[in-house]
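Spend some time on this chain, tokens included, and walk me through the fold:

. . .
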Amino acid sequence: MGKRQLGELQPTELVITILLSEIASIPMENNDVPMINSIFAALLLVCLEIINSVIIMKSTKVRYLLQGKPAIVINDGTLDQKKLKALRFTADDILDQLRQKDIFELEQVQYAVVETNGSLSVMKKGQYDSPTNSSFGFKSEKQGIPILVANDGKYIETVIKECGFKMKTIEKILKKEEVDISEVLILLLDKYDNYTLIKKEKS
């Protein structure tokens, strides 16, 4: 099932997860049942899940049959009541999920889509969306993933090498901040040389 979280599991995956736990518990509860029986049954379920995943990946029709399709339940601020009935959702369910996304009025919503796992994806209308740098014509600085390169007064040399950082860059940052490596609690650095440095508190 890869890196899916519990809330992202499809119905078939959730059922198999529950069945696996049930099968694993049988020999623990009954010593007369051979362990090999449970192992074989668990492997069979895992194989079936892998086969099912491959078929779903290859065939759109099978995917829609087993997992369903995303459904638009709000279009231009208007609830689609027929879709709600088909999904067995109440208006309260939708409003509850909208409030969790800090949306309290239907008129703020351009589209709301119920995904196949039951979560709600929302696109706000332009006038209610949060402004971005591009809205004002500002250029944003490039940002990469911050990597921890120094921790508790020591360089993390393996990370520095693996990520291709140069020691000269790190030393330049320390010089700019006028600190010694022994004074650094945390130093985060990305590939565009953006950094976050936190000094140790003096005791």
